[in-house]
């Protein structure tokens, strides 16, 4: 295992401690628990609280997006493991200013169970909580069964829209409505080129052989839809975008934002090669790219690979996506 560690079992605790030390003016822990983090000025008076949560190992997802213009709080689990309902409840109470709280998180069984329980506990204390699930992974379930899909990098667009709407002063019902609108227009496809090693395990938890790729592999190593010899950047991009286009039913005249995401070990140079062809391909469909993001937005430790997320936008969604943001891991002027 080639990792810079002390004690493997302290990997998450020491990581969280380091992040809090690095960004003391932007983040704070709730009740001394570094697994329950909120923006330093939480709660923000009169504003709907936007929260998320999930397992570690995906930085900048999830905690990197807590800050002005995006999220108000996050519950952090161990590597690839859900945080507890109690941690999410602590975050919920800390960000609540009386306007209600919106949960946005990926569609995974453990997260759904724990966050639904946290919402019930919050309701018992008089806090209204609503939920919008990220379920953008086209490879994880067929068209028509979108409710079974996993949430991956496309959740970035949900954070962006919900955070901007809440900062504008919209009510909880209004924020939920526009976030659901964004979720319905977001799709992601990805591929893996290498496995990952969990610090507490010490060896790869699945296999992708040198010279191979796996289309549709999940960010925890969930099986994809096909394995094959590694193809060219243009071939890979074409396959991922074709799946997104067909599932989202993109048409000439549509406007989109694109997120080209590294899963951890793939460098930005390769992402820009992919984006170059992605924009060309979308232009060939008659689709206009209104905004692009290229870099690391939702990773899987040191996994090599990439994903493409596309959100079809109208003026309302694009306006929210274009608003300023200032968080520890992401800033937009």
How would you characterize this protein structure?
Helix 2 (85-95) packs across helix 3 and helix 6 (233-248) crosses helix 7 (268-285). The chain contains 8 helices and 14 strands. It has a 6-stranded mixed beta sheet with strand order 1-2-4-3-5-6, with helices on both faces. Strands 9-8-7-12-10-11 form a 6-stranded mixed beta sheet. The chain has a two-stranded antiparallel ribbon with strand order 13-14. With 333 residues, it is an alpha/beta fold.
Spell out the blueprint of helices and strands.
Layout: H1 11-22, E1 27-30, E2 33-39, E3 49-56, E4 73-79, H2 85-95, E5 101-106, H3 109-124, E6 129-134, H4 155-167, H5 172-184, E7 186-192, E8 212-215, E9 226-229, H6 233-248, E10 255-262, H7 268-285, E11 288-295, E12 305-312, H8 315-321, E13 325-326, E14 331-332
Helix pairs in contact: 2-3, 4-5, 6-7
Question: What are its keywords?
Answer:
333 residues; alpha/beta; Rossmann fold; Hypothetical Protein Tm841, Chain: A,domain 3; 2 domains; six-stranded mixed β-sheet; 8 helices; 14 strands; 24% strand
Globally, the shape reads globular
Number of domains: 2
**CATH fourth-tier homologous superfamily of the largest domain:** Dihydroxyacetone kinase, domain 1
Our count of helices gives: 8
As residue ranges, the low-confidence spans are none
Question: In total, how many beta strands?
Answer: 14
CATH architecture of the largest domain: 3-Layer(aba) Sandwich
Order of helices and strands: HEEEEHEHEHHEEEHEHEEHEE
Topology-level CATH name of the largest domain: Rossmann fold
CA-CA gap between termini: 39 Å
